[in-house]
Amino acid sequence: MNARKYILAKQIQWARNNGIDLIGSKGNLGLPAYTRTLDENLFAPLSSETLKSINKGDGRELAGNPSKMQAVHSSSALSVNIFQYWQSINQPEKIAQACHFCQQTTQVSKNIRFEAKYPIDTRFRMGPNIDVVIENDSCAKYQVFAIECKFTEAYGGRGHFGMKEKYLELDIWEEIPKLYELAMAIGSEDKENKYLHQAQLIKHILGLKKAYGKINFRLLYLWYDTLGYAGWKHREEAARFVEIAKSDGIFVHEMSYQELIVWMADNYRDAHQKYIEYITNRYL
Fold this sequence. Notes:
This protein has ten helices and nine strands.
């Protein structure tokens, strides 16, 4: 069983174990992997703020019936299930600490946004949409902690698009020569990385750099691990990218969802029992 099918099978079994009826992407057609209602796929319903943010994103996660976000393997649903809880109880600093953005005593985080847009240049119709952004106090060292989230996407086997030449012509590459060299090497199609979409991560860095400067943000690549070669190779590709970015002075790190969830279970279970039970039962 390949990595994507393995993750999908686990999520389908989670739904069945919890008495959740599944339908296909076209209702009666397609593999039954979509919940009948969005709320069945979430730990808690979308808040009005989260709903507004996701609707503004370019991914059209809530369009259609069923929507993409009703898929049990939805990356958007996974990110909401992990991050929205901390916004709802007004403790965004807790998830920032769990993501290893800061020490456990740090209390600078103030807000969590989904599908935040960071345009790189006016000549592009769309800018990068970053899955989750934790906004910090104005006096903090880093203005935002940004998170790019992946669930099954890396294991689809479709390959990844690279960097179009028009990106390479921008003047925003100042101070990040190693990432520029990497973008040049990628070309229009990334043939080196099978799992990591590094062109997307580079664009996220460009958008964040445009908004905050080179050193005023941190970026986390948060990915879902899997058994065997695919998980090992994905981690290797992510670690290599992190080292290249760090050589340019960009504050970026990688972490698997499983590492994040286990850390939270070990540290937050007593005070947040229902949340911890949900994410451990579903995603470990």
